[in-house]
Design a protein that fits this description.
By secondary structure, this protein is mostly helical. The chain has helices at residues 3-17, 22-47, 57-67, 74-90, 95-98, 103-129. The chain has one domain (3-129). The protein is built from six helices and no strands. Helix 2 runs antiparallel to helix 6 and helix 3 (57-67) packs parallel to helix 6. The protein is globular. 39% of the residues are buried.
């Protein structure tokens, strides 16, 4: 299993198992974003290269954002995970070009954008179809 997929799946599992409020999850996301940006920048320098596969904190942030405003049910987490992986791989605009940003910000931002796209899709499904 690719590191990004494994990190996303593990994050979805943790989100399912560990209870928490939306506010608490939002605070956790903020910590992951700040610490992840710093750590990703440092890791790029130590490992070498732009956004090496060993850096997966960006997937953690994106997966959290994907379901932030929704009930963390099994179906939401599974669909959120699948959509997140699609958006993370496809990198629809502006996610692909955002990777050109320097350092940790360039590592993190494309996954945050992918997570935001997933969140919007899930919220539209909820508003339009009553799911979940």
């Amino acid at each position: 299993m690719a590191p990004g997929t494994a990190a996303s799946a593990l994050t979805a599992l943790v989100l399912w198992v560990v209870p928490g409020s939306t506010v608490g999850l939002g605070l956790a996301l903020m910590v992951v974003l700040v610490a992840g940006t710093w750590a990703a920048e440092r890791a790029e320098r130590l490992i070498g290269g732009k956004d090496p596969g060993a850096i997966v904190i960006d997937e953690v942030a994106g997966m959290i954002l994907s379901v932030l405003l929704l009930p963390r049910t099994t179906s939401v987490l599974v669909v959120g995970f699948l959509l997140f992986r699609v958006f993370d791989v496809v990198k629809p605009f502006p996610a692909g070009v955002s990777q050109r940003l320097p350092g940790g910000l360039g590592v993190m931002i494309d996954d945050v954008i992918a997570g935001l796209y997933v969140l919007v899709v899930l919220l539209v499904l909820r508003a339009g179809l009553g799911w979940p």
